[in-house]
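[recover] target loaded
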């Protein structure tokens, strides 16, 4: 009997109401990549359609939880996950390879991610593998126009799945939607629900693959795509006027060549979270620490919650230095860049140095905005 490997990967499946999450999940559950998976479905309202569909689709699935995830169920999701660990440890469940949480369509995904990453006991047992966001190929554009939650769902995704492409008769509209999603989230691979959204393509989005013991930093950070996006943002060829929420979301990379003292990174992350934590939708990064430069420090977080920083045993490729990818909503990029420059002592005309920031963090313009 294969033992359960901790921490157990958790995939969060999100997407707006009716986007096709359950349909996708039902298809995925027939994929061998999802054997020994527990599915947690968050139902909104009292008709348990999702639950029936899922039970039909696969045996041995544990189905729990109801109510709205973004408010009252936050506590319950934690209880549900804790209960799973308990059942594993007491042998009531033989093994558990992964968990998929389907959020309600209205939920902001951040609280779900926070409840996993922010809970001191759960964080030992689970790791966030990735966020999969389903976007309706027909109604996706209108949903992004109307609901900032939908924009956030797309922005924090590690994988975007376009659903109902078979119903999309407007080819130009579909390619505009793709371009728009690419703009909101430059790094997540975009897959077609009916064609290439397989278990293998959607799962194992994390940095470190325990099976192969390798880490693919570049694709985890989505770095090249982020750089490309950054240039595009500053180009003058783009017309945003009818996408009112899209411009609020930004994805950018902070880079520092050479090692950084642990205390500087700690201070940067503390200041960032305490001043603008709720605007930080997602952060991922790899850091060359001055005290131990051969073992990169890996950080990732959702809003104010940081996953406990972990060390990789070695640098997986030629990449060195510090790369932090931030996905933000309404956050002053300039402030973040200045703060980062200050703590890493990168000279700049009007930015105080690290000593000055330690003395008075308010010295950075934008600190209180
Ligand atoms: N033609 C077509 N229909 C789809 C596809 N995906 C989903 N649907 C249909 O769209 C409707 C909504 O799909 P669901 O999977 O229930 O969507 P959901 O995101 O789980 O919905 P909520 O749980 O209500 O937020 C259903 O009638 C599905 O049959 C698709 O790829 N093609």
């Amino acid at each position: 009997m294969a033992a359960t490997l901790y921490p157990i990967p958790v995939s969060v499946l999100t997407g707006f109401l009716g986007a096709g999450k359950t349909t996708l999940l039902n298809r995925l559950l027939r994929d061998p990549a999802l054997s020994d998976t527990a599915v947690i479905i968050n139902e909104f309202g009292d008709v348990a359609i999702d639950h029936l569909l899922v039970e039909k689709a696969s045996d041995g699935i544990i189905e729990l939880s109801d109510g709205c995830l973004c408010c009252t169920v936050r506590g319950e999701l934690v209880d549900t996950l804790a209960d799973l660990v308990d059942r594993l440890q007491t042998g009531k469940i033989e093994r558990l390879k992964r968990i998929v949480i389907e959020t309600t369509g209205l939920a902001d995904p951040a609280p779900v991610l926070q409840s996993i990453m922010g809970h001191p006991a759960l964080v030992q047992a689970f790791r966030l593998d990735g966020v999969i966001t389903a976007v309706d190929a027909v109604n996706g554009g209108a949903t992004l126009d109307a609901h900032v939650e939908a924009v956030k769902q797309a922005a924090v995704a590690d994988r975007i799945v376009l659903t109902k492409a078979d119903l999309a008769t407007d080819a130009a509209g579909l390619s505009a939607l793709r371009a728009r999603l690419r703009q909101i989230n430059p790094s997540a691979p975009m897959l077609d629900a009916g064609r290439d959204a397989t278990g293998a393509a959607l799962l194992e989005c994390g940095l470190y693959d325990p099976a192969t013991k390798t880490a693919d930093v570049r694709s985890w950070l989505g770095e090249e795509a982020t750089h490309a996006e950054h240039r595009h943002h500053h180009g003058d060829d783009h017309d945003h006027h009818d996408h009112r929420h899209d411009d609020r979301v930004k994805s950018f990379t902070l880079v520092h060549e050479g090692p950084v003292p642990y205390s500087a990174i700690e201070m940067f992350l503390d200041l960032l979270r305490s001043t603008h934590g709720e605007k930080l939708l997602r952060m991922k990064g790899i850091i060359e620490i001055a005290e131990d430069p051969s073992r990169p420090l890996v950080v990732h977080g959702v809003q104010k919650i940081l996953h406990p920083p972990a060390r990789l045993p070695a640098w997986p490729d030629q990449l060195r230095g510090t790369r932090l990818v931030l996905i933000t909503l309404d956050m002053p990029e300039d402030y973040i860049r200045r703060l980062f420059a200050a703590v890493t002592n990168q000279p700049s005309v009007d930015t105080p140095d690290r000593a000055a920031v330690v003395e008075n963090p308010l010295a950075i313009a934008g600190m209180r905005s």
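[recover] notes: Residues 73-89 form the longest helix (17 residues).
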